[in-house]
Amino acid sequence: MKLKLASKPLMALFVAATVMIAGCQTVQPPSATGTTTPPAQGETKPADQGEKATEPATTEPAANQPATSGDAKETPRNETLYINGIQWGPPSNFNLLSGNPAFPINYGNSRELVYETLFMINQLDGKLEPLLGTKYEWTDDMTLHIELNKDAKWSDGKPFTSDDVVYTYQLGKKYDINWSNYWAYIADVTADGPNAVKIMLNKDNPNRLTVLDSIELIPMMPKHIWEEIEKKSNNDLATIRKEVNANPVATGPYKIYFYNDQKITIVRDDNYWGKSLFGKLPAPKYITHVIYKDNAAGDLAFKSGQVDVSQQFIPQVWNMWKNGAPIKTYLKDAPYYVPGSMPSIFFNFSKKGLDNPDVRRAIAMSIDYKKISDLAMSGYSAAMQPSLTLNTDAESKYVDQAAIKSLQWTTDVKAANELLDSIGAKKGKDGIRVLNGTRLGPFEVECPYGWSDWNAALEIVAQSAKAIGIEIRTKFPEAPVWTNDLQTGKFDIIMNTPAGGVNPSQPWSRAHDIMYSKEVAPLGEMAFWNWGRYKNDKADQIIDKIPSVTDQAELKTLYTDLTKIWLTDIPSIPLMYRPWVFHTVNESVWKGFPVDGDGSNIPPQIAMDGAGIRALYQIHN
């Protein structure tokens, strides 16, 4: 299902709003990094979203689009890396401006395979690694200077220059596309000679973090190609979006080789400029994404060795290697996958009973997080340590862990009952508590129907609340209804992922989406962050300040103070740590995939995004 999200002239989360798996998507707010655009049916979503139990939606090929392109013959197995879980349904186009490009052009992943970004995010440490850009620095409070790789070339042999960077950014100013909302924070992007650019912040709305997001999120486009497409289309975006672009001119190591309704194959460009950067060409000559009808079919192909890298949710993945199959996850033991988001429940602050922080804390203490991990997530979520940050090296460094420890909750039903007793919430004859004349339930907690792991998690939340005398009932509407309920505030408790994704603006963007109250529409109108309409002036001040702070010690103090406010007020409760990608590999054909502790510092995103692309230079037969 494709969700239509209302636009907002502020901010939008670029990554998560443009990808989906099994037909589902989490509604992301206009957050820190780009325009909210509904994903195409048939695209994957990152692993932070609820997995849908039914068969994935598909996308019909565009009208008058050729059914196939390239050579249909099979490629040699020992030269071909097979992947799954990114593309669901036939490809419709390979046009970055279409809003629904197929693998490997889709915005939220695989950007380094054909098109490339200036820098690559490393999920493990949060750092930006060089690609089309060699280095960046803030030359003053308002100017980011970026130096470009002089070796970089387009696949047609023309040099990649600063004009291409300026052109790509300006497309977002000229048209309403995925990176348009960066211009809320940018005053101008200009060339500084042929191999450098300057990005100037908007003095009325400066935000360094979002600009750093842009340099690792926006795929660079060739000016000499797309200017002609614009001219042919009379600068009409609707016409431009009809361009299939079956043979993209790009800077990446691969080109489109063949595609039809069943698979997409890309072939290595042996003239790839990046040989000078990486020291060699990628090992696989071909990468093929087979389009399976559902997760079960993809899992079967993966287990049998027909697929090398699976980005699908695999229940109880340890069963894959029980009989000695050469199958691995990035982490050897549970939770097996690196966390990338925190799907959470949000409280409507206008609801009597739920407006009390002690009631919200008691609910948080009642939840059986281990049961959620074991039953809903197949054990893929580590023990819950409530914070605004993920429990990763890239994020946990921002908060003084000792300073927040006394405020963090754990599953403790006895203590939750004692807390409710202490505030005078007495149980009635039916076992449900009453506080100041307000019965604590029934409250509805909702997420979309068919998002199986989220549905299971909310059932556990409802069961857990019974043990403390609070009545919570699950509600699983169709996704468009849930979207409307979320944005208009028509809910008691609702589940969503705040700013899912791994990018330079984290954990600020997550805190913004949970807590920031400025410019949030009132109940009944569309809000794209802070869905419960929480308000804390001190939190707003800290969130406003963080993007301009560069001193690491000061940042740690600010994030620690903000986390203390969140732990005290509890506007949301994270239910799980969820991987951004499900990275499982079968080494029957290809070996040498990165794993935790191998010293490579390569994140588990091979054939996906960012610095994970480096794995293509490490694997071998």
UniProtKB/TrEMBL annotation:
Annotated Solute-binding protein family domain ranges read: 127-503
Q: Where is the signal peptide?
A: 1-21
Q: Does this entry carry the keyword Kinase? A: no
Q: Does the keyword Signal apply?
A: yes
Bias kind Basic and acidic residues: ranges: 45-54
Q: Which domain of life is it from?
A: Bacteria
- Region annotation Disordered: residue ranges? 30-76
Name of a matching Pfam family: SBP_bac_5
Q: Which UniProt keywords apply?
A: Signal
**Amino acid composition bias (Low complexity), ranges on this chain:** 30-42, 55-68
Indicate what this protein is called per its UniProt record: Peptide ABC transporter substrate-binding protein
UniProt organism field: Paenibacillus cineris
